[in-house]
Every structure is written in structure tokens, then in C-alpha cells.
Known about the structure:
Chain A is mainly beta.
Amino acid sequence: MSTRTPTTGTRAWLPLALLLAAVIGAVSARAAYAALQIEITSGVRDPIPIAIVPFAPAAPADGGLDVAGVVQHDLEGSGRFKALPRARMPATPTRAEAVSAADWKGAGSDYVVVGRLATLDNGALAVDFDLVNTLTGAKLATQRFTGPPGALRNAAHRVSDAIYQKILGVRGAFATRIAYVTVDGVAPALRYQLLVADADGENAHLILDSRYPIMSPAWSPDGQWLAYVSFESKLSGVYVQLVRTGERRLVSARAGINGAPAWSPDGKKLALTLGGSNGNPDIYILDLATQNLTRITDDPAIDTEPEWAPDGHSLYFTSDRAGSPQIYEISASGGGRPKRITFEGNYNARPRVSADGTQLAMVTLDGGNYRIAVQDLASGSVRVLSHGRLDESPSFAPNGATLLYSQREGSRGSLATISVDGLTGLRLKVQQGAVGEPAWGPFGT
Amino acid sequence: MAQQACTHKLLASLGMAAMLAVAGCGSTPPKPPPAAAATDANAAAQSAGDNAANAGGGAGLGSQEETAGPQAGLLATRIVYFDFDSAVIQGKGVDIVAAHAKYLAANPQARVRLEGNTDERGSREYNIGLGDRRAQSVRRALLLQGVAEGQLTTVSYGEERPADPGHDEQAWAKNRRVEIVYLTPAGQPAAPAKP
Lengths: 445, 195
């Protein structure tokens, strides 16, 4: 959906030709892969009280979607907000002018969100919302999102993003997508599926299905492609796949390890790990247009899990060259000497950097447990954020406020989020089997 | 949004293998049926004019089709276990590797794939490195005992293919392993190799 503010015009979000496919898909995809169920595991002590009043519908084009319900689910899921139950709402206004601020203040809400859907002449849907401060009665925000009816759920997430940003000053990441791998069946007869879903776990759809492992999905910076490792040939291969069409390309199937793909910030190159027939995993950069390969590390140790610094000038990676796995940084132009980044503890692996380049997330061994930690790159200070026994695969939300990772609970793998301040968390489960290897996609455009 | 239409098609084809439904939609869909996967992967590389995908020795890896292989005595044992954080072949593993080395050296057309595996602890891609180290340990032992390089392919599945689904030390010990998998001999159709 596009956004129209007083300073920007309306843009089409999707070509209308895709409208019908989107309408059908939005319903059926949910039924086919209602894969992730979310529960809040921790929230801030004093969440912001907010009321999200049901939006005026636009039947039948809205397909009965409860836009306010999606917004409420997003905001409460962030752990930062507490929504007023509908039964306790003093009224059901749909525009700011009809909001009696004192009544809502009396019901305990600091903010009220009202909104309405409208069918436009070209068949598109418009979603308008107003955000009202109940203490002052002031209208803090008013915004319109337009697009085909099939993208209505995405529009609801954009409403959530806008409210989150207006109140907390940080861009919301609700209108984003995540990729993850599910594993079902009993070892050794396992079935692996790579899926993509909205950040709230809805709208899941299949990218790849295999009897052999799939791992390490990585989003291109424009959110159009996924790179991943598949063992479908029984040996490892790195593939890149266009999410929208399924079109894909094998980009590396060399002898030994082909692993850990990571897109450069300009989307033109992949950093990856190649092991060779003699088994010496090192970091390389593959130019996707020319296929040129540049060797970045050359050490008999395991060098793997490359991650680009946001400026594209350097790479972080895991290496056990000093005896145990630690994280290093090296120039992405090759030929440089790596600089060790982590010094606390004897197991630090799988670096991921926040979009602003200030925070490094990793897997750390903490008193016998593998947990997610964040290191401040300027000061070097480390905070362990998660509390599990086998936590792994951290991935930053594009706004840098939250980490998505996988954890083991009993015999099941599930996904979890934790805010970088450690205050709020969520758990995302599949109905059967295990889920892991999450990768949070970039902001949409 | 086209992929959502694919998902619809997938839903509409309940009872059909999901992979077939996916393969049947879109203009250039993924083709994941595992039985044909190696061929698909090669075709994908060739259609992209992508010989570089196989640079560095990958092009010579050959068919990965499995065969029963020799069964006499220790040759029937195909798994070598390892200690925690170790790639050292120990105890019974030394004898198992020696038996396969003797067979492979005497049967130069025979080929094996050495599959390295780890337990589930730690980071996944780092575990790929650790599993590779175990596969290489067995590979080097075989080469030292007269097996030719061309008879051996290695792969590491890291923690991705556990033999035991448990989450305790007993399960982990069964998962830290190298599996020796016999492949159809080079240049021959699928047929069990005779001991």
C-alpha cells in the first residue's frame, strides 16, 4: 500500500493486474500455512494504554478483514502497548472529530486510534486513520494508505508502523517479512521447508520443500530475493531465488562447503563460505553479475558466517583461528588482516550487525548455555539478552529495535523475539515440527 | 503477490505433494523433488551459463546416487563416531576406516561420500565447519591408506541431519559422526558394488 500524507501524493502499491492473485492468495495462504502462532513472553512493566476502535468497513472489498484487530495485535505484540478491550470502549467513532477525548481518558487510554475504509473509483481500497491524544484532544497523526484489496493486511501493518513511530519515535517493523525453515518428521526421515511470512507470522507461503537440509536464508537488501543453502543434490549448494516468482539460480556448488551466504549492501555480491575438497573453510566474495570470486580470508581454521558492515567496506565473520570461535572484522576488498572483535567468553559466533552499524548480535556460550548477546561496537560492552539453553541464529529487525532468533524448548524448536533493550519478548511456534533459521527482511519500499 | 497465487494452487491440490504444486506454478518455479534434484541443480547452473558455480573442482563430483556397497565384516559398519569438539578418529573408528580403506584401494572404481555431522549445540554454519573437519579427518585417513582422491566426496550437514532426535548427551554422542555412503561406481549405471 502506498501512503499519502499532506506532502506526498498517492502511489499505486501493486500493479492492478496482480490484484486478483493477491485477493485469492491472502485468504488461502493463511489456510495452507498458518504456521506461526505468537504469544507474548515478556513486556514492559508499564505498557502504553491505547484504544484501537474498529474501523468503518468497506464491504465486500475488505473481505471482512478486521483492520483494527490487526493493528491491535501488532502493537500489543511489540510489548510496548496495552489495548483497551472493545467491550469497555465508551463509543465507536471512526474519525477524530467524533472522539470525545475525556471519555477515553476516563476509560484509561492515553491514545485513541480511529479509522475507516473506503472503496475508490478504480477498485482500490483506502485506509484512513487518525491518532488522538486523549489528554490534550490533539490529533497527532492522520494518514491514508491505498492499494488493492488483497494488500489490505499489509496496509494494516503500515498503520501500525505509523502509530508506533509517532508515539515511540522509532520506525515500526510490522509491514516487513521474515523467512524461516521448518523441519518436520522423525530423524533421519526429515522434511525441510523454507517459508516466508509477514512479520506477525501470517500469510506464510512455501519457498522450497526438500528431504535434505535447507539452511541460512538471507534477504537481498531490496527484499526481492532470498539466498540460501540447499543440500537437495545431497551436496551443498548456494541458491538465489526471486521470492515473487520462484525463479532461482544456483550460484555455487563447488567441492566441499558452500555456505553462509550474505548479500552486500548494494545487492550485487554475495559473501559466502567455501571449503574446497581439502576442507579449509574460508570467506569469499562472489560477484553475482560476473561470477568473479575474491578470496577474503586464508587461514587453516574454520572461517565462516560472513556479515557485511552496513557501509559495505568490511565483513564480520566467525573464526576459530585462536582456538575457539570468536568474531573478527576484515576489509571486504581482500588482502587485509582481520581484527578480533569479541573477547568475552570462549564461544562467540554468527555475527549480525544492526542497520546503523552500532550493535553486533551473536551466539555466545554463557555458563553452559548458548544464548543471544549484543555487543556495543563502540564501547565493546556485551549484554546477554536471551535466557534459553540452545538459542541461535539471531537476526535484527530492520529498525534495529528487536532481534529474532531460534530457541529449543523441550524437543521443539521455535522462534522468539527480544527487544534489544531486553524488555519485551515474543514466541512464535509452529503447530507441528520445529522452526528455526529465521531471517528478518528489510523495510518495504 | 504471484507466489500467493501459487500457494492457492497448492491449497487447491490437497493430497498432491506440495513440491509438485510449487513446481507447477509460476514461469520459472523451483524444482525441488529430491530424486531429481542433482539434475535440476546442474540444469539450473547450465541454463544460467554458470560454469563458475562449479569452479574449483565441483564439476568433477559426479553422480551422488547411492548403492548398497560391500557388506562383509566391518565393511557393513558405515558410521564413525567422534568425541565432543573433536575430529580425531578413535577406538573402533580406526578399524572401521581401515577396513573401508582396504576395500576402496582394492576396488578403484568404488566411490564413497563422506558425510560429516555434529550435535545440535552452537551456531549452525560454524557446525557445518566442524562437521567438515570430521569428514576431512576420515578422508585424510583413507588417502593415507592408498585410496585415490577421485573416489572420495565430502559433505558436511553440520547439525542439520541428526541420527537421533533427542536432546541429551546420549543423543548428541550418536549425532557426532561421519557416515560412509557408497555411491554407484564412476561411469556406470546404478548397480550394487560387489565386495
